[in-house]
Design brief:
heterodimer, A: 268 residues, mainly alpha, Cytochrome Bc1 Complex, Chain C, 1% strand, B: two-stranded antiparallel sheet, 7 helices, extended, binds protoporphyrin IX containing FE
């Protein structure tokens, strides 16, 4: 009874002028409407409107790319909440960690969730890469999406690495010291790179600020941008790669030749 | 431009199942489509619901972990007190292990650069696209290349005392030997599986093995002065 009432309210809402003005796809469960729900939405339209049923099985992709995206979204949410309590300055940054633990309600949980999700994202991005490789999904015409993937892996690693410094404890300080010293080993310009990265010769307050800006602004933006390209390319490359449904090609040229002569499909 | 008489156009009949498809067949090509027709479903709601469900399960798992395990927090950063060992985050410990054997230019600059380049170029080389088992075609040549690469790599690692990387290399080489001296008719499913693996599979699997072993060693088995320790005896 109650449920029915709610459902009819929802129906009414979705039939309202306001709703229709916001969501272009309109109401309905027809295939057309369901396609429009994707195609007429600025965020969803980078996805294909249809997918091969086989690729929804767990053993096709192990959903590792989806899970990587899930951790990223969780990190954005918890990260923004953490930003309300965090000052990227010495020694306040460390005091904020203590506050998160002992003063802020659920602060410890928030920090835990952000930290464990970050580890999970790195692990999942690696796992996703190997899964994509082992099912051969890097083959033409998907080679550039593989490259976008490698960029995403690097962005993920950098995000995790820049975040590592922010608590400003011994663990953070020395991990970044060990890591950033390596950049001095680059021939000729090594010391310049090292200085540029840290804003000084040592890990200090300047380095903290730089890592903070990279971690909260530049790298997340880069991640969003390349994730968008990654998803759009999946659609443009003909959906997820399925063994057998596409002929095994020996070479990239063969794949290209197949594409050009065999079937010219007008995509919507 | 081809004139209109150079091709014929056909329209897919089943407009209810798939978006309208038009196929142009030019005169000089035969009209065969090798790919099989696949059953398709709508992204909304079929795919998006599944994605939401699996992400929810992930969130639940991470929330549980976060309720029971606290993120580490040590004393405030102190440039005058160096912990021993000072470890990088876990995903860089493989490289830090290399830093133990090679100068920073090699371990910190050359190896990572080579790794990234190697990953990027994978799909651009036909050798990584060929699907057949490495020793099934051009057997003699590939066998020679395999022996040269495996032996020189092992000697190199042995020479620099990099036993942590040598062991996975030898394991991978042993499995490749099994593949080399088995055939598609060999007994045992595992052997036949190894026989069918292309060269790109072997390289990637060797890399994965090294990655896992080096990261585990760096995380659990390295202590003060980067000496061997046992994690359960700290
Ligand atoms: C932030 C990191 C990443 C996110 C969020 C992400 C997301 C996704 C998702 C959701 C898919 C759909 C299918 C699936 O789950 O496998 C996908 C496919 C793909 N990913 Fe990623 N990915 C990331 C990193 C990578 C990396 C590191 C690589 C490889 C170096 C990669 C290469 C690919 C390729 C080639 C496909 C297409 C597979 C096909 O056509 O079947 N991605 N990605």
């Amino acid at each position: 009874m109650q449920l029915q009432k709610q459902a009819s309210r929802l129906d009414k809402l979705m039939a309202s002028r306001l709703w229709k003005s916001i969501f272009r796809s309109g109401r309905g469960a027809s295939t057309l409407h369901r396609s429009m729900a994707i195609q007429q939405n600025v965020f969803l339209h980078i996805l294909p409107t249809k997918v091969r049923r086989r690729m929804l099985n767990f053993d096709a992709t192990w959903y590792l790319g989806t899970l990587t995206l899930g951790t990223f979204l969780l990190l954005v949410i918890t990260g923004i909440l953490l930003m309300f309590y965090y000052h990227p300055s010495v020694p306040q940054a460390y005091a904020d960690m203590k506050d998160l633990r002992y003063v802020v309600s659920s602060g410890l949980f928030l920090r835990n969730l952000h930290r464990w999700s970050a580890h999970a994202m790195v692990l999942l991005a690696f796992a996703h890469m190997f899964r994509v490789f082992y099912r051969g999904a890097y083959r033409p015409p998907r080679e550039f999406n593989w490259v976008v993937g490698v960029i995403l892996l690097l962005v993920t690693l950098l995000l995790s690495y820049t975040g590592y410094l922010l608590p400003w404890d011994q663990l953070a300080f020395w991990a970044i010291t060990v890591g950033s010293n390596i950049s001095s080993a680059v021939p000729v310009v090594g010391h310049k790179i090292h200085f540029l990265l840290l804003g000084g010769n040592l890990v200090n307050a300047n380095a903290l600020l730089r890592f903070y800006v990279l971690h909260t602004v530049i790298l997340p933006l880069a991640a969003v941008l390349f994730i968008a390209v990654h998803f759009w390319r999946i659609r443009k490359d003909g959906g997820l790669y399925v063994q057998q449904s596409e002929p095994a090609r020996e070479t990239a040229e063969e794949a290209r030749a197949d594409e050009n002569t065999q079937q010219v499909v007008v995509k919507q | 431009m081809t004139g209109p008489s150079d091709y014929i156009a056909g329209v897919s009949s089943d407009a209810r199942k798939a978006p309208r498809r038009v196929v142009f067949v030019t005169r000089r090509t035969s009209a065969h489509v090798r790919s099989v027709d696949e059953e398709q479903v709508q992204t909304w709601p079929e795919a998006l619901f599944r994605a939401a469900l699996i992400v929810e399960m992930l969130v639940i798992a991470l929330v549980l972990i976060s309720l029971f395990f606290n993120a580490p927090l040590e004393g405030i950063a102190n440039p005058t007190v160096t912990p021993n060992p000072a470890k990088a985050p876990w995903y860089f410990l493989g490289l830090q292990e290399m830093l133990h054997y090679f100068p920073p230019v090699v371990a910190g600059v050359m190896i990572p650069t080579l790794l990234v380049v190697a990953l990027v170029v994978i799909p651009y080389f036909n050798i990584n696209i060929r699907p057949d088992g490495v020793f099934l075609k051009h057997r003699r040549r590939n066998l020679t290349v395999f022996y040269v690469v495996a032996v020189s790599l092992s000697l190199f690692l042995w020479f620099f005392d990099v036993y942590v990387a040598l062991v996975p290399t030898l394991v991978a080489a042993a499995f490749m030997l099994i593949a080399a001296y088995s055939g598609p008719q060999s007994p045992g499913r595992f052997r036949r599986y190894l026989v069918s693996r292309p060269v790109s599979w072997w390289i990637m699997t060797w890399f994965l093995l090294e990655l896992v072993v080096l990261t585990m060693v760096g995380t659990f088995f390295r202590g003060p002065g980067w000496s061997w320790v046992l994690p359960w005896r700290s």
